[in-house]
Specification:
The protein is of the alpha/beta class. It has helices spanning about 15-25, 45-60, 90-100, 140-145, 175-180, 180-190; strands spanning about 10, 30, 70-80, 85, 105-115, 120-135, 165-170. It starts with 7 loop residues before the first strand and ends in an 11-residue tail after the last helix.
Length: about 200
């Protein structure tokens, strides 16, 4: 990796996003974003616009303390019909969400944003993946609710864990469903004038 390249920062607490970036062989540092989500910031927006805007706000606010570096923000939204499914409040709420996804198609939307902390140039996008669940039985759902997986995830499931048993097929980027669409991220880096391949440790 060239010494002239700016450092990369990930403004996300998500262990899944950390794993995906680390799996690419990229050096990065996790930093906290002081931004707290407000409904007013995304009022009257489509889910795609909202995910993209929230990712940008997270990255922008996290970049405020830096002199240089590229700051990545991300936000994942699960949409069933016209309903946005956030993180479940409790076990009953998680069960309700999972049954609403049973036997149906839903959208997983991840907004990604990269901010150049030096001049605050920002590029953002939203990636959409369609996920098809098979019909879930009460036993399926109860088994899943007995794990720790559903409770910190939008839509009450993580595709990379036990819920892989629920997914019939995926149309679009698999990594987007995990929470970080790699190819979309590479495109944002290119818009900023960087090739992600140059950041990979050899």
């Amino acid at each position: 990796m060239s010494h002239n390249l700016p450092p990369i920062y990930l403004a996300s607490k998500s262990p899944r996003r950390r794993e995906i970036l680390a799996g690419l062989g990229i050096d990065f540092e996790v930093i906290e974003s002081p931004y707290e989500e407000k409904q007013a910031d995304i009022a009257d927006m489509t889910p795609e616009q909202a995910a993209s805007k929230l990712a940008g706000l997270k990255a922008f606010h996290a970049s405020g303390t830096l002199r240089k570096g590229l700051v990545i923000g991300a936000d994942t939204i699960v949409v069933q019909g016209d309903s946005i499914l956030g993180k479940p409040r409790d076990r009953d709420h998680a069960a309700e969400m999972l049954f609403s996804l049973s036997g149906r198609r839903h959208r997983v939307i991840t907004g990604v944003s990269v901010v150049d902390a030096e001049g605050f140039r920002t590029f953002s996008c939203a990636e959409v993946t369609h996920v098809f669940f098979r019909e879930l039985s009460r036993k399926d759902v109860d088994m899943y609710l007995d794990t720790s997986e559903p409770y910190d995830k939008a839509g009450s499931y993580g595709i990379q864990g036990h819920a892989a048993l629920f997914v019939e097929r995926v149309e679009g980027c698999y990594f987007n469903v995990v929470g970080f669409p790699i190819v979309a991220f590479r495109g944002l880096m290119q818009q900023l004038g960087y090739d992600i391949l140059d950041f990979i440790k050899r």
